[in-house]
Specification:
With about 425 residues, the protein is α/β, with parallel strands linked by helices. The chain has three domains: about 5-200; about 210-300, Translation factors (Elongation Factor Tu (Ef-tu), domain 3, Beta Barrel); about 310-435, 3-Layer(aba) Sandwich (Rossmann fold). Helix content is about 45%, strand content about 20%. It has twelve helices and twelve strands. Helix 5 packs antiparallel against helix 6. It is elongated and about 80 Å long. About 35% of the residues are buried.
């Protein structure tokens, strides 16, 4: 199935699951049914539960979704749906209070019945989830601690919401509603089990060992790995994987890094990493033979349909890593299609893989590399400034609409360049854009 078809199927499934409870609720007819306003409030609550369950699948941890949409789109949907869940729950509570002000007494945790306490616990958990994300850095929370809180709160909110529905029992006596809600909650619980227990275990039995660590320009290192007794990592150029220490099978300290090696070498994957944090800085000192866990591949591979006439690669800084994977793969495949790399850096000394790119240009006559320096030293004769619309027009081919494009770099740069490519006629489906903070 094509990537576009997968996207359509996944989006349709997401919509069906999100909206199905509304149909169940509005179709439920019971003796002594509550007012329409209460039914509307209940529908908001059921919609919130559906979106909450779907959040487990739209978290960026599923290879199928990241391959189909890209990590940026998946994480953006995850954040937006999280806010939508909170809005729906708050609206659910407010509409119930408007329909009967006497229900304000349910907000008192000392006198409220269990159903109300469970509902308020779910609401408070959602508030904690929503607030902890943007305030993580200001509160001094490490990424690992924040993830632990996030996972714990997600499980708590799901359990509290389910208990709230069971204890309210306004619709759970209807078999179709009862089994639909149970299936939804169990699917979310199974998904959490898979991502936090089963998948880490599967990763642990397919370990890799460090062959060598190479220092690169731009304060980066290349980690050269080898599969330890298994076929290795089958990936497409442009994808990434998550690395973590071998002793941290169920730990939360994993980090996503793009693959820089050729996709034709699944048993010998390379990761080129810039030392920006404690974990990435520690990779440079790993001795040969160290075992490491690799969870992947994730993310969207470069669009490679037979009708693609060439590949445009646009990178800033360490964003050149997936572009190098594309070039190395093309060299191993002896792909005759043209490749154009626009590579942005601050200074000449910051150009990661400068020597190898020169060597690849000699090996691949169809490869052209254009370096762009924002703080060029005197004597630099190449492009200066940033990769913008004007620079693109100077270098891209006339048949760019028939090319695929890979853009990787800081998030603002990626957004700007992706927009420029669309203005130049590149179809949105042919643009893979991955930004990092």
């Amino acid at each position: 199935m094509s990537r576009h078809a997968w996207r359509s199927v996944l989006l349709a499934g997401y919509g069906v699951v999100a909206l199905a409870p509304l149909g169940l609720i509005f179709g439920a007819v019971k003796p002594g049914a509550p007012s329409r306003l209460v039914v509307f409030a209940d529908a908001l609550g059921f919609a919130a539960l559906s979106l909450l369950a779907l959040q487990v699948f739209a978290s960026g941890r599923w290879a199928l979704t990241t391959k189909s949409f890209g990590l940026r789109a998946v994480l953006s949907l995850h954040r937006q749906a999280g806010v939508a869940v909170l809005v729906l729950v708050v609206a659910h509570v407010m509409v119930l209070m408007v329909s009967d002000p006497a229900r304000l007494a349910l907000l008192d945790p000392l006198s409220a019945p269990p159903r109300a306490r469970a509902g308020m616990l779910a609401l408070l958990g959602l508030l904690a989830l929503t607030v902890s994300t943007p305030w993580r850095r200001r509160a001094g929370l490490s990424y690992q601690r924040w993830r632990a809180i996030h996972l714990g709160m997600t499980a708590l909110v799901l359990a509290a919401a389910f208990a709230h529905l069971v204890w309210v029992d306004a619709y759970m006596s209807l078999a179709v509603v009862r089994w639909s809600v149970l299936a939804l909650v169990l699917a979310a619980a199974a998904a959490l089990f898979w991502t936090r227990v089963a998948r880490p275990y599967a990763t642990a039995v397919r370990r890799y060992r460090v062959l060598a660590v190479h220092r690169e320009r731009g304060n980066a290192v290349t980690l050269e790995l080898e599969a330890d007794g298994h076929p290795g990592l089958r990936f497409g150029p442009g994808q990434f994987a998550r690395l973590r220490a071998s002793e941290s099978v169920y730990g939360l300290d994993d980090h996503p890094f793009s693959l820089s090696s050729s996709a034709l070498r699944p048993k010998r994957p390379d990761f080129t990493v810039k030392a920006l944090g404690d974990f990435s800085a520690s990779l440079g000192s790993l001795p040969a033979g160290t075992k490491i866990l690799v969870d992947g591949p994730h993310g969207e591979a470069l669009h490679d349909a037979s009708g693609v006439r060439g590949r445009l690669l646009i990178a800033a800084g360490i964003g050149v890593t997936p572009a190098l994977s594309v070039i190395r793969t093309a060299a191993d495949r002896r792909d005759p299609r043209p490749l154009l790399l626009l590579c942005g850096n601050r200074r000449r000394a910051d150009i990661t893989f400068a020597d190898e790119l020169n060597a690849l240009c000699r090996r691949l006559p169809n490869l052209r590399v254009v370096h762009v320096l924002s703080r060029a030293e005197p004597g630099w004769t190449g492009e200066r400034g940033r990769i913008d619309d004007a620079l693109l027009r100077r270098h891209v081919p006339a048949d760019l609409r028939e090319w695929s494009a890979l853009v990787c770099g800081p998030a603002p740069m990626v957004t700007q360049v992706a927009g420029a490519l669309r203005r130049l006629g590149v179809p949105p489906g042919a643009i893979q854009a991955e930004g990092f903070a």
